[in-house]
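I had to read the description of the data format several times before I understood it. Each protein is reduced to its one-letter sequence and a matching series of backbone shape codes. The format is easy to grasp once an entry is in front of the reader. For illustration, here is how one protein appears when written out as sequence plus structure tokens:
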Amino acid sequence: MIIDFSYLKFLSLKVPFFKTSKLSMKIVGVKALPVTYMILIFILACIEEMLFRLPLVIVVSPGSSPYLILALAVLLSIGFGFAHGDPNNILCQGVMGFLYCLVFLSCGGLSQHYGTALMISTITHFLHNAVVDMLVCENEKTVTT
């Protein structure tokens, strides 16, 4: 399984149990998955939520145009999709980014409870990543054995 961290290369991630290459990191062993890997994907979910959901705070205020909020959510979702790789990822990851925007807005973002909204969208993002990664890991295990 290859995890693409190219969009976060400015952080200079150095994580034990991972081999680093120019644009990606590969999991060395499944033993790293439970603790180190879960912590890593939680941190990455936090960073992504701050980068791609928190800017919605700029346009959310009493009397804000729903079209303006929707337009920013769509732009942030396209950026989220593009940040996860190449233009092919914009559709799949962009849709997930838009769903995370909806979670952020519906769980406190529209009522200006930004901390709660950010926490819930981050947990949602983390759980989605964890489930998908576990399914991919399990699928690779069955394919290789």
Notes: Residues 48-145 form one domain. The first helix runs from residue 33 to 52. The beta strands are 2-4, 18-20, 24-27.
